[in-house]
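Entry for the shared binder. Reason: the reviewer on the internal report wants the predicted structure included alongside the sequence.
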Amino acid sequence: MASSPRLMFMLHKAAPRLTRSFFTCHHACKSPLIRQQPKRPFGSGIPRLSSDGLLARPQAGASIGNITQSLQSNKRARFFPETSDKAVAYWLLGSAASVFGIVVFGGLTRLTESGLSITEWRPVTGSMPPRSAEDWIAEFTKYRSSPEFKLLNPHMTLDEFKSIYYMEWAHRIWGRVVGMSFLLPAAYFIARRKVSAPMAGKIVGIAGLIGFQGFLGWWMVKSGLKDDLFAPGSHPRVSQYRLTAHLGTAFLCYTAMLWNGLSILREHKLLADPQAASKLFERLKSPDLRIFRRSVGALAVLVFCTAMSGGLVAGLDAGLIYNEFPYMGRGLTPPKSELFSDFYSHTPDRSDIWWRNMLENPSLVQLDHRILATTTFTSVMGLWAYTRFSPTLRTLLPAACKKGMHGVVGFVGLQVALGISTLLYLVPLPLASAHQAGSLALLSSVIILGGRSWVPRRAARLVSQRLAKPMRMPARPVT
């Protein structure tokens, strides 16, 4: 019994040699082909089951430590899925529709002179309107101390005040609804890992942009509640700079929601048929389509800038002058002395006369908007003619891009008609509101066209990975 431990030790030490000797063909080892093959570490040739059920073979020369490290990195990367859920796309598109509606309603609030009726910013306690007669009198008293009441509405009654108060209150409540309906689902989708890692970062960015938009809204209203923020004795209005910043942020929120929602849906559609997606990408990457792709991007920037110039027109009430088209007075443009007036310069050397007139002179602001609108219309029609009469584009351009181009042409024609009608009829409420909605609809059509024309890098990489993955192993029959 004393020799048993020594015997066990000797067998344990000799076991590797015995097994190697028993299961090795010495005749085959003498072949030069066998002797030329390099030695591979243990486990390097064992197929591994990937996370999606596919068999993947480790690379030659990979060690057990490298395989373990790769698995750990894949686990960290798999905290978020490769693709976002379709429910996230529908939620983003619904949020974009809500932002579209609040932008149009905000324009109505501006046109009805209701934006300055609430003189305080109470994000929590201001969610409910006044309930009693005493509360209404208190709110009306605060409004009576504002410059708008003293200069424009000194004879306003309490009932008239209620109508503009409810308009501004509804606008603010809608803004809170947009924020909560975005923040709560965003937290849920991220916590439940329904979005990819890049999309999670984009959603957080949009949420921050919504919060910043609320701050800009009050910052804008505040500019119309103090006499020192506009010229003494002038029409009480919010700053056109702050109004344009508020409008621009709303446009950015809407564009981000629309773009990312459509991107998720397009990604799912492309991954459903990787072969067809790969052929589409090769077609869109053609150098012959480079000019078209860049033109669509430039067109999106041009439409956005035209809409922002419209914000300056609204902030200065510049649409109430020169209500004719295409002339402005006796010519196509007003006199130079009117366009670049010394009245708007704030420095003795008049070094700011150019940019201040472009941003503060109603005559030049309206002219700038006309020029930008005409340039936008001409650019759209030129791009349409390029796709229509170029033999190369008629062959290479996908049918979806051609349909998107037709949609842009339709919306730009409608927007030009609405703009001219709004100007000729002295900015009536229905036409002005439709014109503002038309600018957002035109931008949407250009964004959709861009989504169909540009090659998404992430989707292209995922499609390449799908095509490079091996075939699924057939299920082994149960015996």
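Summary line for the report: The first helix runs from residue 4 to 22.
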